[in-house]
């Protein structure tokens, strides 16, 4: 990160005398500011963020909505280890309805993880793996037509 000095605002009697390089130059008296600080503090500049990464849970939620299934249920089925090194194991349950009488329940248990969110994502990845094997898309269709 490079630091760039911020020039002072022009005064009423100042008509580009700052470029003369004389003793009246006030640019050295102002503190340097970083470019990143200017971008964050300026309300007129849009803050560009990178692409949003979909988690396995959000993909699973969207696939369930798209296919008119019930929402997936995530439940903690095991907690191991001492309180400072706890490992959580979650299971994901998805009830799929195909037609009026056909019902499939998919239940996957994820790998033990150090936090609950990543443990739920691990279980959702198992359900997504199974859905891909059944022929369902891994990621939801994001190509919606805009009118």
From TrEMBL:
Coiled coil: none annotated. InterPro entries: dsRBD_dom. Residues 1-11 have a biased composition (Pro residues). Residues 56-132 form the DRBM domain. Residues 1-33 are annotated as: Disordered. It comes from the Eukaryota. This is Double-stranded RNA-binding. It comes from Cynara cardunculus var. scolymus.
């Amino acid at each position: 990160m490079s630091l760039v000095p911020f020039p002072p605002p022009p005064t009423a009697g100042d008509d580009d005398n700052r470029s003369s390089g004389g003793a009246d130059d006030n640019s050295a008296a102002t503190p340097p500011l970083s470019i990143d600080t200017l971008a964050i503090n300026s309300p007129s500049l849009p803050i560009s963020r990178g692409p949003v990464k979909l988690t396995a849970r959000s993909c699973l939620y969207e696939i369930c909505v798209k296919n008119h299934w019930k929402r997936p249920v995530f439940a903690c089925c095991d907690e191991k280890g001492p309180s400072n090194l706890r490992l959580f194991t979650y299971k994901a349950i998805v009830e799929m309805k195909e037609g009026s009488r056909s019902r499939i329940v998919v239940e996957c248990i994820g790998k033990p993880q150090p936090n609950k969110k990543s443990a739920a994502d691990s279980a959702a990845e198992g359900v997504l793996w199974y859905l891909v094997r059944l022929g369902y898309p891994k990621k939801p269709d994001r190509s919606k037509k805009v009118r």
